[in-house]
Amino acid sequence: MAGVAAGPTVRVSYGFGRIPRDGAHGGMVKLQRLHARFPNQRWRFNVLYLVSSRLPPGAEALLPLIRSGRVALVWNQNGVAYPAWHGPGWEETNAPMARMLAAATCVVYQSEFCRATADRFLGPATVPSEILYNAVDTTTFTPAARKARNDGLVILVGGTQDLRYRFATALEAFTLIARHRRDARMIVTGRLWWGGGDATAEARRLLAASGVGDRVRLLGPYTQADAPAVYGRADLLLHCKVNDPSPGLVIEALACGLPVVYSSTGGTPELVGPDAGIGVPGESGFERDVPPDPHRLADAILQVAERRGELAEAARQRAVERFDLAPWLARHGEIFERVTARARADA
After folding, report:
1. Torsion over CA: 209, 215, 220, 223 (sign)
2. DSSP state of 41
3. Is the domain of 315 the same as that of 335?
4. Given this model, what pLDDT does residue 1 score?
5. Domain of 227?
6. Is the pLDDT at 206 greater than 80, yes or no?
7. CATH number of the domain that 110 lies in?
8. Residue 17, by phi and psi: left (phi above 0), alpha (psi -120 to 50) or beta?
9. Which candidate among 61, 175, 283, 315 keeps its CA 20 to 30 Å from the CA of 209?
């Protein structure tokens, strides 16, 4: 499928006047990758591609145009709001997504978990739909050259620390690891932001109380351009988020040859599979988020450390075979051709 591109009759808009060249994160990264193959059209577009986790301002104002049949909506559905992480008002947050999904010509779900939760909280799609996992450029995200190192076991806690339990659980697991591995260190990336504001001060208090704060580095936010080098500094990824719908962070880590220790909830198990890491079972309901047990996470980390070479190879292979960017772009080209052909036939 690599090399398939949409024809000249396909004109795609992503709902934004401009797609940034760099500095993006989350859903905008997908749009950057698509824009490079299918340039963003501000006018006279016939396909509108919207990502639920990165909606442009005023997206619902386009509904009449979509319903008129002049523009096909390809709706990329990520996660939904639910009581555990969102709290009161989750229904209002979901309502615009439900309306857009109902108006779509085609729905792309980022994981089976995304489909299941969308069916539950937004309503099932009544149009053609499929699972299309997030993708990674496996020529840019590659395993680092692993020369003889003297820095011991390096654990990466990546992404943005926007939930207190993600940081606190990782730190508790690392504290347990530190008892067994005097050479262990942990890198924490992203802004520390929970409880409605900057949580850096609280994070530093937790580090001080842990007794291992001198072995933990708060790296702060990083760009997509910096990401491969960040992964290259670590031996494994520790991902504690509960019910994560389809984390691009995990796919990037796999491409860089990092095995993953994770909460075995949400869409993450679909990404890691049986051979590229170890999942820690946990409660996966929607009324409360229960983080994975730190003791079980620590045990899993020690197991991964012992088998790192084998698991790292499996991680890289899985990323190349299942999440490479080229087939992902090619599939989008096929979808765009299909929905525009259908619109021409209906005209």
Report:
1. negative
2. -
3. no
4. 29
5. 154-322
6. yes
7. 3.40.50
8. alpha
9. 283
**pLDDT value for 282:** 86
Same domain, residue pair 180 and 228: yes
Residues 165 and 272 reside in one and the same domain: yes
* Residue 221: pLDDT over 70: yes
Pairing of strands 12-13, 47-51: parallel
Asked if 271 and 337 sit in the same domain, the reply is no
* Average pLDDT along the chain: 93
Q: Determine contact, residues 249/159, Cβ cutoff 8 Å.
A: yes
Gap between the Cα atoms of 311 and 132, Å rounded: 24
Q: Is residue 1 part of a domain?
A: no
Task: Render pLDDT for 66-94 as a digit per residue (tens, 0 to 9).
Answer: 999 999 999 999 999 999 999 999 999 99
Residues 161 and 166: their CA atoms lie apart, in Å, by: 7
> What is the distance between the alpha carbons of residues 10 and 72, in angstroms, rounded to a whole number?
10
Please name which of 176, 189, 178, 170 lies closest in space to residue 153, comparing C-alpha atoms. 178
| Cα–Cα distance measured from residue 326 to residue 136, given in angstroms and rounded to the nearest whole number | 9
Do 18 and 102 share a structural domain? yes
DSSP class of 105:
S
In the numeric block, which tokens belong to residue 279?
A: 């999942």
CA distance 206 to 186: 14
Across 220-224, average pLDDT: 92
- Neighbouring CB atoms inside 10 A of 111's CB total 25
Clarify whether residues 30 and 60 are in a common domain.
Answer: yes
Q: Are 47 and 20 in contact (CB under 8 A)?
A: no
Distance between CA atoms of residues 301 and 102, nearest Å? 42
Number of domains in the chain: 2
286 and 177 within one domain = yes
Whether residue 68 lies inside any domain: the answer is: yes
Left if phi > 0, otherwise alpha if psi is -120 to 50, otherwise beta: which for 179?
Answer: alpha
Answer for the pair 187, 157: CB distance below 8 angstroms, yes or no: yes
Q: Which of 66, 37, 36, 64 is nearest to 50 (CA)?
A: 66
d(CA 54, CA 29): 10
